[in-house]
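Two folds, back to back.
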Amino acid sequence: AIKQQSLFSKGKIILVDDEFLPMLTNLGSKIKIVSSQKLENELLNNMNGHKYQPVPSESMFVILFTSGSTGLSKGICHTQKDLIFIGRNCASSWKISSSDRLLSGIPLLSAATLGCILIPALLQGACLIIPDKRKPEVLVDSIEKKKATFFLGTPTNYIQAVNGYFKRKWS
């Protein structure tokens, strides 16, 4: 899955735990595989006297804004612990595994995509498909050509994807 997805990606580096290095040796010379442990050691050794202080998982990680459906958009603070909890529950509930290919029809920096697509993909080692655009025809193409096994979207995304699929199929 990684090799196939790398053909569609502009990524140049894959950061992995040491245990996965042997599985990724045949990706070719265009992608550099970096051990997360080696990177962490190099960062710690080159801190020029600065002290390493781990960030507690209860610290604020990201502020995500609501859609403003009940008025003004509101910034909601999320901790790392919150998002990992959501991600683990989504991965478990939806039985996401390393063989899945996850696609989101909603913006990447939304609570739904972070908690239900991005983090479960990272936790489970699944492939994350990031479409160039969220237009119906692009989503349908991504589902078909990139063989998405899981799609998260709004009701409008589903209606447009279904209509786009059938429109293309019978035109």
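---
second:
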Amino acid sequence: LPRNLRFIGHGGDAAKRVHAEGIHLYAVNSSASSINGVMIDSNYFGPYTSGIHTTAHIYLDGNIIGSPLITNNEFVQLGGAYSPSNGSIYNKNAATTLIFNNTFSSDGSGLAVQATSKGVTAKNNIVSKFREWFSVSPATCDYNIVFQTPASSAVEGSHSLTKDPLLSSTL
């Protein structure tokens, strides 16, 4: 996929009749159709301010194989009806998704990542002020900075930081 795209703008409508995503990848769930080698790299997603009921910033669905890689992106959510209902990243049926080196920020009401089946591996991400970091199982999480975000279904590894990383002048 192209790099350095900016996805800012219109979400869905109040009746929730439209899928509104920055990127939606779909492959029919059959052996005859698949997507392999997905890498979504160096993009900016959100905040959506002129529409409501966005589904996700990135929506992966169907027979997506080979561990899609989502890396070096920035995801911003404003909260409420403007936050994606399925999180910034939604893995509906794709292979285990690798989420590395991204920045997620919200006003305290959003969901960062949701997956329904295959799981997620998340490392080296910064997550700030979300209602929930992960709604997924199984998940492997380590080397992340997750602050002002309650505990989620994902257990952070021993190398993650779960406090605000602000530095003081005494350091």
